[in-house]
Amino acid sequence: MNSIVYTIIMVALWVLNLFNDSGLGHIYQTTERARTIIVLLFIIVIMFQCKEKQFWVEKRDFTIFGGLSLIIIAISKLKGYGNMGFHYISVFMLVYILGQVKIHLLAIRLTGLVYVILGMSILYIYDYATLLSGWNGNTIGMIGLYSFLIFLISFYDTKNIKSKIIIVIITGIYIHLIEPTDSRSSIWFAIVAVLFALSILPRKIITVTDKRYYFWLLIPLFIAIIIVNVSHGSYMNELDLWSMEKFQKPIFNGRDELWENGLSLLREHFLFGRGTVEGNWHNCVITILTAYGCVGGIFWILSLQKILSKGRYWINDIIVSGCIITFVIMYIQQSVELGLVNENPNILPYIVLGIMLGRVKQLDEKEIENVEGEYEKDKYYSSDL
After folding, report:
1. Is residue 378 part of a domain?
2. From CA 116, how far away is CA 174, in angstroms rounded?
3. CA 40 vs CA 15, 17, 85, 240, 250: distances in Å
4. pLDDT level of residue 384 (50, 70, 90 thresholds)
5. How distant is the alpha carbon of residue 334 from its chain centre?
6. Is 280:338 a contact under the CB 8 Å cutoff?
7. What is the pLDDT of residues 119-173, one digit of tens each?
């Protein structure tokens, strides 16, 4: 696909995500209309691939993703929450659609540049204008952070000194703009991302093996369990006083109580959950477990791990590895925030997965063309002999 056309589509998705689950989004029903388009496109893509005999799914993929879809849709229906499960699952359809679009380096760099400008703009408007007054600061900070992380995708392995200087400058601007949103996690995770971009943190920490992805995907659960236990310590009063002085809010800001309640709910609905992603749990794994139980949670983790592992063969490609690092950072940030698992989720992390799959598709087809070219060359020289 042409890089400019691709970027325009990505900008449209960014704007859609901005109004997702907002007042304006509800008034104009942007999320519902976009979801309808995604489902129709998904059906069209599948039908076209079947017609061209290009649709093929590995048995393990069919089991994992089919199981995830069936469990989430069925549990929400049976528990009385209607199409809530289907609404969430539709975001995986978006991942599949984007995964059919072959990605070149120019397209992702152009998209990243536009995203970083959009991210800065939305933060600036929130900080210095009244247009977004009343919007949640954490939500704005998160959109700004994710825009910045998508910009970094093609720079995680840069050796160019000028590029590194530009990254440091942009990071400084971002941190300055995020600070008024009071989103501590957005600041900390922006710093973590830059440490990867500057090669201070080696990318192999995240990408070394497929099995390592399971560890990262379970991090939000580990964090919740540890903090729930730590929060009962006698030293918590001192930590809260320190946090109030530095950040004007308690150290865990009530998340420890939320997670403790969530884990208690999980014990009551251990296998299949409550059927709803509502609850504002500020932790993506707690959200999925309370909604769909351990059965749904296992299939969800397996699905995300399976998507990430599809980039393993091309892990040395800058876009593939950049997408994996970016998604993992976004995902771990969801240990303390909302958005990844929702009836109308933040779609930017899922866009990153789609970009990665699209790049893998482009690299796979290029490799096949090279192999076929070598085969034809061998046949030509063999016939001469």
Report:
1. no
2. 9
3. 20, 19, 18, 50, 46
4. very low
5. 9
6. yes
7. 999 999 999 988 887 888 888 999 999 999 999 998 887 788 888 999 999 999 9
Q: Which residues are CB-contacts of 24 (< 8 A; sequence separation ≥ 6)?
A: 30
Q: Is the pLDDT of residue 339 over 80?
A: yes
Q: What is the pLDDT of residues 45-104, one digit of tens each?
A: 999 888 877 777 788 888 999 999 999 999 999 999 999 999 999 999 999 999 999 989
Nearest-angstrom CA–CA distance, 173 and 124: 10
Indicate the number of domains in the chain.
1
**CB contact set of 281 (below 8 Å; sequence gap of 6+):** 258, 259, 262, 287, 290, 338
Instruction: For residue 255, tell me if it sits in a domain.
Output: yes
376 domain-assigned: no
CA 125 to chain CA centroid, nearest Å: 24
- Ramachandran category for residue 182: left, alpha or beta (phi over 0 → left; psi -120 to 50 → alpha): left
User: CB neighbours of 295 closer than 8 A, spacing ≥ 6?
Assistant: 71, 271, 272
Question: Is 337's pLDDT higher than 60?
Answer: yes
Task: Specify whether the CB–CB gap between 94 and 40 falls below 8 A.
Answer: no
Q: Is residue 371 part of a domain?
A: no
